[in-house]
Amino acid sequence: MRILAADLGYSSIKVAGTGTKPFKFPSAVALKPQLGSVASKIESYNFGGLDYLVGEEALRFSSGVGGRSEDFSVAFAPLFIAKAIEEMRKGMGRGYVPDILVVSVAVDEYSKEITVPLPEGGKESGIKSKLLEKRLREFEVNGEVFKFEEVVVLPQGKGIWIDVGEPEDALIIDIGFNTTDVLRIEDGKIVYSTGGKIGVLNLASYLKDYLANQGIKVGDKVVKPEISTEKAEKVIREGYLKVRGKKVPLEDILPIETLKNLLISRVFGIIEENRALITALDELGEVIVAGGGGYFVPQNYKEYQIKIPSEPEFSNVRGFLKFVENQL
Length: 328
What we know:
Strand order of the largest sheet: 16-15-14-21-23-22
Strand content: 25-35%
Number of helices: 11
CATH architecture of the largest domain: 2-Layer Sandwich
CATH topology of the largest domain: Nucleotidyltransferase, domain 5
Largest sheet: 6 strands, mixed
CATH class of the largest domain: Alpha Beta
Shape: globular
Helix content: 25-40%
Distance between the termini: 9 Å
Radius of gyration: 20 Å
Mean pLDDT: 88
Number of domains: 3
CATH superfamily of the largest domain: ATPase, nucleotide binding domain
Oligomer: single chain
Low-confidence stretches: none
């Protein structure tokens, strides 16, 4: 039984499959540009009669549209899954197709009513998790029809809990690019969950404004680069900013601890405004933090001990994979 798990994030799509190492690609989509002979060499995906670039290619050859809106991951989910399967085939063979597909939705968006403008035309309205499951049940990309035995949609954060061994009592914080999900686990069950629009995007916005206002010293001059939020996120991810042909380390622009404390203070703002979560913190003392934001979190904050799994951005998909494997 072949399982494919995909965490459909606002910044990147994280993927894990049976017998393979997790990988990711940007959650970016763009119509394929007319580039002459170069265009024929670019990997593209035909969906709804149009040719799209997905992931890195969308960013490299076009001003790709990233997943910043709640409907984006639902609208383009077939393209993201087709891209994930294509990447899997590079190691598993051309005949690879998963039997079971597991995907995710942010906790506070899981049961939310949304209206999705579809790239192939028209709109669909309904609960986000249900729309996503329906959209992925069967679709066609590049003339190939994809149909799975089962499509499972899970709330983000649950995978982290499973990945770290399903502790009986825990507070799970999943910090993504645009959202943070918080789950309270009690006696091995999710008893409370909440979320908010806080994530690595906040750090990117802060860095963008800092560069425009304070600037950085290059040689004997102060340069004030004006960069986009997407570019700032890339600087945070890669650890440097290229200025006048030189790679300036992020640490030379802003202390990493400044960014870490900024993010964790905003995340804990969600918790400290919630009586149920504050009670959980007082009882547990240890908090499990994962997601892409896990790389930018200090090991301790105030009196709390923070546990971060290895490669925290892949914690959800590793857990989703285990979840289905345990059901078989």
